[in-house]
Amino acid sequence: DAGITQSPRYKITETGRQVTLMCHQTWSHSYMFWYRQDLGHGLRLIYYSAAADITDKGEVPDGYVVSRSKTENFPLTLESATRSQTSVYFCASRVVLAPPNEQFFGPGTRLTVL
Amino acid sequence: DAKTTQPNSMESNEEEPVHLPCNHSTISGTDYIHWYRQLPSQGPEYVIHGLTSNVNNRMASLAIAEDRKSSTLILHRATLRDAAVYYCILSPSGNTGKLIFGQGTTLQVKP
């Protein structure tokens, strides 16, 4: 099925390790987004991308790196994981057309940093 | 970014209508009003959006006040599957599509 997928769905890592979360969408949507959701809170935007090779910071970018060499993929890397980055990470995408800004979200990756 | 205010939680009985309020007194003329919901252990999903006029779709209705400082999401007949966190979000037209999520309203539906 076409859609937006994330991998892995669950990840446990240790402080200081590098972790990469993958996001793949099959719609060829121009815009892609990474959010994090901490327990009991709403989502916060980490990074977003308007197209391949175009990325920009969101509300909480510190400690994260993104790249977008292909339209369909938008990996998020934690270069040196910290306990405060324990969270559920959601990827999303949308078309570039005029409003509405309907975003399609992936199922999430639950990351635990020990 | 203009902010929204929603009640933390609401309860409803199954098969009854639910009115979820949202205040956005600092809304600008180009801000769209979006509603997303998040079912337990899932990513958010789009519900409905509007600019000035009331809107209906298969999931819900959106009633927008004439001055646009508030809006109400209406679920006409709540089901147990509608139990979720509902987010009211403002997003300017023509922007990158960034969504700023607040705390949302947790809706409980009782059988």
Describe this structure in words.
- The complex is a heterodimer of chains A (114) and B (111).
- Chain A is mainly beta.
- Chain A is built from no helices and eleven strands.
- Chain A has strands at 4-7, 10-13, 19-25, 31-37, 43-51, 54-57, 64-66, 76-78, 87-94, 104-105, 109-113.
- In chain A, the strands form two sheets. In chain A, strands 2, 4, 5, 6, 9, 10 and 11 form a seven-stranded mixed sheet that branches. Chain A has a four-stranded antiparallel sheet with strand order 1-3-8-7, with no helix packed on it.
- Chain B has 111 residues and is an all-beta fold.
- Chain B is 0% helix and 47% strand.
- Chain B is built from no helices and nine strands.
- In chain B, strands 1-9-8-3-4 form a five-stranded mixed sheet, with no helix packed on it. In chain B, strands 2-7-6-5 form a four-stranded antiparallel sheet, with no helix packed on it.
- Chain A binds chain B through residues 31, 33, 35, 41-45, 48, 50, 56, 58-59, 90, 92, 94, 98-108, and chain B through 32, 34, 36, 41-46, 49, 51, 87, 91, 93-104.
Mean pLDDT of chain B: 91
Please report which band the strand proportion of chain B falls in: under 5%, 5-15%, 15-25%, 25-35%, 35-45% or over 45%.
Answer: over 45%
Helix-strand category of chain A = mainly beta
Q: Stretches of chain A where pLDDT falls below 50 for ≥5 residues?
A: none
Fraction of helical residues of chain B: under 10%
